[in-house]
Design a protein that fits this description.
5-stranded parallel β-sheet; 16 helices; 3 domains; Rossmann fold
């Protein structure tokens, strides 16, 4: 199959592993920024193949995982209000807010629906004129254009019963926050190809130039990732820092101009509080004043008691999301925290690092990694 089989070719993968091992004169720490990359790394055993040569650490690349508890609390409160419908992507329903999740609200009689596109929520609002329909908009720059398109379409249809809880976040400010964090040990980044398909390369160039750190945009298959790692190691060994685009089959330097125009028309950049990480300047999006009537923050004002600013989870998900620890280093991992009974968002989401480790690895009580039989 074009663009699949060749990027899973074992011979190519083994050659890249050998190239990395022969190039590296020391162990380098590289962070992948996307949960999809994390799952591929774990699924295909790339971390094990490079053990002792490259330490792959996981970044905050799961938008569901970094959605703050107050946003989830707000969605729950709206779902419990009379005459409302809350639409969401499926993986958000199990993510805990301060004390419960959207599944709890649905079990208590709230109308919470899983949709596959923000435009599905617009259609729900069109067909339900007597009810308030709220879409829970979560994601990086990848999904923001679809949310913007939903607002543009709702404006065209003159809908007065549609709004969004916006929890879209931006990747470049998160990179800056990771580099500025005390004890940071990341020496290079693998940037997410699907994000850069939208944004292009522009916002990453200043980070490379000012921070002198390699960033390589990659895809999500084993060969993509290994080639990206090889390029990072090549730069690190030569003490160079460049932005490279391994995923050139999808990513163009200027990204997707139409998608960027839609984001710029509808959203403005704001400071945003990332779950487990904290406030990151200019890392979030909010609906611009011209479209503010579609903002659920204004349409459904809530009290501080209804939307706590703290997460009740006792797990160490914040340290996982910022790359300070691996999931198996959390004492709760695989014991009191499992996909069936998650304590934190990274164990819930299909892109979460904890879920990836649980699915493809196990740890015993002594903490040593055991390969999964699956």
């Amino acid at each position: 199959m074009k663009y699949l089989d060749e990027y899973r070719d074992p011979k190519i993968a083994r050659a890249l592993v050998e190239r990395i091992k022969s190039t590296a004169k020391r162990t380098w720490t590289i962070m992948e920024l996307c949960g999809g990359q994390t799952h591929s790394i774990m699924k295909f055993g790339l971390d094990a193949a490079l053990e002792g040569v490259v330490d792959l650490v996981h970044g905050p690349g799961c938008p569901v995982c970094v959605t703050p508890a107050p946003a989830i609390d707000r969605a729950i409160a709206i779902a419990r209000a009379p005459g409302t419908i809350v639409c969401s992507f499926g993986d958000m329903l199990r993510v805990p807010g301060s004390s419960e999740n959207l599944f709890n609200a649905r079990a208590d009689g709230g109308d919470v629906r899983v949709v596959y596109s923000p435009l599905d929520a617009v259609e729900t609002a069109r067909k339900s004129p007597n009810r308030e329909v709220v879409f829970f908009a979560v994601g990086f720059e990848t999904t923001a254009p679809a949310a913007a398109a939903a607002i543009i379409e709702a404006d065209r249809l003159a809908l007065d019963n549609f709004s969004l809880i916006v929890s879209h976040v931006r990747v470049p400010p998160a990179i800056e926050a990771i580099l500025d964090a005390p004890g940071n040990r990341v020496q290079a980044f693998l940037a997410a190809g699907h994000v850069c398909t939208v944004t292009g390369e522009g916002e990453y160039q200043p980070i490379v130039a000012q921070r002198h750190i390699p960033i390589v945009i990659t895809g999500f298959e084993p060969v993509d990732l290994l080639e990206g790692i090889a390029r990072c190691v090549d730069q690190l060994e030569k003490r160079e820092s460049r932005l490279e685009n391994q995923y050139a089959r999808s990513v163009r330097p200027k990204g997707n101009p139409a998608a960027l125009a839609a984001i710029d028309l509808v959203f403005e950049t704001v400071d945003y509080d990332w779950r487990g990480i904290g406030l990151i300047p200019r890392s979030g999006m909010r609906i611009r004043p011209a479209f503010r009537r579609f903002d659920a923050l204004d349409r459904f004002p809530t009290t501080s008691a209804e939307c706590s600013t703290e997460s009740s989870s006792p797990c160490r998900s914040g340290e996982v999301l910022s790359g300070r620890i691996k999931p198996h280093e959390c004492e709760a991992f695989g014991l009191t925290c499992t996909p069936d009974h998650p304590l934190g968002a990274p164990m819930v989401s299909g892109e979460g690092a904890c879920a990836a480790h649980y699915r493809y690895r196990r740890v015993n009580n002594k903490g040593s990694l055991l390969c999964s039989t699956k």
